[in-house]
Amino acid sequence: MTKRKRRVFVSTAFIFALQVTYVSASELATQDPYIEGFKAYAEEVKSYSNDLNHSLLSYVDEVKKAEKQVGYIGKALPIPKATKVTDGVYTVVGSMIWHNPSNFGLNNNLSFIIFEDGVFVFNAGANAALAYSLHQQIKALTDKPVKWVAVENNQGHAYLGASYWVDVGVKNLYSSQAANDQFDAGFERTKREWSERVGKNITLSARNVSDQFTTFEDKMVIEVGGGQGELSLLKRGYSGVEKVYLYDFGPGHTPASTSLYIPSRKVFFTGDLGFNERMPVFFKYTNVKAWIESYEAMMSTIPEDTIMVPGHGTPTNMATLKKQTYDYLVYLYQNIEKIVEADGSLEDALSLDQSMYQDRPVFRQAAENNARHVYNEISGGGF
């Protein structure tokens, strides 16, 4: 074979390898098509050029290392701009509908707090692209590093982006013990479901880093630096070391969850304990009675004048969030409990008037589902 013919053969083999890898690889959800293309090319040339084979494999290793070091390679996504909640506290309010390709999986709130010693992120994001995009917004506001990340529960939009934060050097990650165990056990299923709903490529790089988390039960306190560097805190008479309180008030929307309270900023991040504006949605693992009890435990712990940042919806006050979440749960549970006690049917429960909530996003998808869920929970029927 002449030198020119060999070049043509190599180029053709390279293009073919890339096309086959990209189009027909059944492992797209767990492998990078760019890297797999070069690995296929390296295998193709191995029979006549060990040097080229070794060079290509070395390049593959370098690309893997570079990708892992930066966490994400690509442009920032066009997500909403972070809203300032109070001094040094920001939240990106996610979409009010289901996770899908148009919102990149951002259908919960991603928040961050700027402390004297660094930045604390609440919720890792649904994928590395979202985590990276949030990180760029943080960098636009401060040159302080992200030092702490906590996640609200084991759901994909809270947890799947955690590997990005690990890759960029965050050492302090937190979750309730039960939620971390649940995420670890269901990682492959969660990644597959979010890949199908949001997109395979955007979910591709997510890895299970549950072993990197520090976990807690009930309550954990984290010191995050002195408050004396914040003039606004001094004006409020606060000059001590700031602390973040992590709470798991109990099951509800999910079997376990993490809420975050910062007394020095008078702000509380409810996680999925609280929904504002958006209709709460019940899943097969949701325990509505326990959710009511968990919410009551929260209200008995957190001061009434605290700013509330819900898991879904815009920041608000304690009274509004109670009306939006707790009052809805109580209304639904108590009225369907009466139906069950009167030997009423599932159809009676589904007919319960929820029209006062019809202006809330996903009402039509959630109202009947929620009534059915509560009826089955109380009556012991199947889900």
From TrEMBL:
Residues 250-296 form the Metallo-beta-lactamase domain. Coiled coil: none annotated. Pfam families: Lactamase_B. The keyword Endoplasmic reticulum does not apply. Keywords: Hydrolase. GO terms for molecular function: hydrolase activity. The keyword Cell membrane does not apply. PANTHER family: ACYL-COENZYME A THIOESTERASE MBLAC2, METALLO-BETA-LACTAMASE DOMAIN-CONTAINING. This is MBL-fold metallo-hydrolase superfamily. It comes from hydrothermal vent metagenome. The lineage of its organism: unclassified sequences, metagenomes, ecological metagenomes.
